[in-house]
Design goal:
Length: 246
């Protein structure tokens, strides 16, 4: 169906910023101009993917009329309700979160306990993400993103980032192990042509389009090649989107 192709195409279009950051850091290119452009490109992709994850359930009523009959809610109202919930969550984070989270980190940091500070950071991130999902029907990803934005307002934001680095490494490893467990070798024998086509799109198609766009914007060739190689992958949002699409 066209809707399935659209979801699959969007899933292939996004790359992993985690993979890119590690690759650039290992090569010492993270602070370079080319590295910043590549990271900025992927950050924009992540933001768009968060919006896609928010809007996809609302658009389900449009592409599947039986869902509309079951819910008895026109897709326009469903979309408006979704956007309203997202707007309410964003407003709450900007008005309340910017005042509460920095003071909370400051208060916990005064205790002098490193363990309590780490626990506060984790509890805040997971708590906001859970609240976003439960109360506002917003994705965990968007909730965690805004939790990070609110913590950024605190003078202890750099400490929070440094203290959570081992956890980020552990979750990154767990993610890639989980992805490896999803792979079925039998697909190589059952659908070799389709598999090669998808790999070609990820490794060549995306890179070619990205490099052309960078050259059109009059950046040098080495910048175009850096961005092209950076996009020759798919990311964690790809699997989340495909799961939600199903």
């Amino acid at each position: 169906m066209p809707s399935d192709l659209l979801v699959f195409g969007v899933a292939l279009s996004v790359a992993s910023s985690v993979v890119l950051l590690r690759a650039l850091e290992s090569k010492g290119l993270l602070a370079s101009v080319n590295g910043r452009i590549a990271v900025g490109w992927l950050v924009v992709e992540d933001l768009i993917m968060v919006l896609v994850l928010v809007l996809l359930p609302a658009f389900a009523n449009l592409v599947h009329p039986q869902a509309e009959q079951t819910a008895q809610i026109p897709w326009v109202f469903s979309l408006a309700l979704t956007l309203g919930k997202v707007a309410a969550f964003v407003a709450l984070m900007l008005v309340v979160g910017r005042r509460v989270f920095p003071k909370l980190l400051w208060w916990v940091a005064r205790s002098g306990s490193r363990e309590l500070f780490n626990l506060c950071v984790i509890a805040t991130a997971l708590g906001v993400a859970f609240m976003a999902s439960t109360l506002f029907d917003v994705s965990f990803a968007l909730g965690a993103f805004f939790a990070g934005m609110m913590m950024r307002e605190s003078e202890y934001s750099h400490r929070a980032a440094d203290e959570s680095l081992p956890l980020r490494d552990a979750f990154s490893v767990l993610f890639f192990v989980s992805v490896g467990m999803l792979f079925h070798p039998q697909v190589i024998l059952d659908e070799p042509i389709k598999l090669l086509a998808v790999v070609f799109v990820v490794l060549v198609g995306k890179s070619l389009v990205a490099s052309i766009l960078i050259l059109v914007m009059r950046y040098p060739l080495n910048t175009a090649l850096t961005v092209a190689v950076s996009l020759a992958q798919i990311g964690e949002f790809s699997f989340i989107l495909i799961g939600l699409g199903k």
